């Protein structure tokens, strides 16, 4: 994920390689947070916890139905090729 802009405030949320989420405000101020919402460093001291989780949180494993659909597509594609 390349990042996400907050729809109301215009802040940009970007995942970092160290596991934190970088939040850049429209005025250029920056802060880093854990995906759970804990401030790590930077001038920005508040970030939307829902977007932090969305951008930096753990990714859910695919459901059984999604796995079956992916397997079906793979088989169908190989038959139609």
Describe this structure in words.
This protein has one domain (4-80). The two termini are 31 Å apart. It has helices spanning 49-56, 64-80, and strands spanning 4-5, 12-15, 21-24, 30-33, 39-42. It is α+β, with helices and mostly antiparallel strands. The model has no long low-confidence stretch (mean pLDDT 88). The chain has a five-stranded antiparallel beta sheet with strand order 1-2-3-4-5, covered by helices on one side. It is 31% helix and 22% strand.
Give the SSE layout.
Elements: E1 4-5, E2 12-15, E3 21-24, E4 30-33, E5 39-42, H1 49-56, H2 64-80
Antiparallel strand pairs: 1-2, 2-3, 3-4, 4-5
Helix coverage percent of residues? 25-40%
Contiguous uncertain segments of 5+ residues: none
**Overall morphology:** elongated
Domain count, please report it. Answer: 1
Strand order of the largest sheet: 1-2-3-4-5
Order of helices and strands: EEEEEHH
Query: Hey, roughly how much beta strand do the residues contain?
Result: 15-25%
Structural category is alpha+beta
Q: In angstroms, what separates the terminal alpha carbons? A: 31 Å
What does the radius of gyration come to?
18 Å
Number of strands: 5
Give a quick account of the main beta sheet: strands, pairing sense, barrel closure: 5 strands, antiparallel
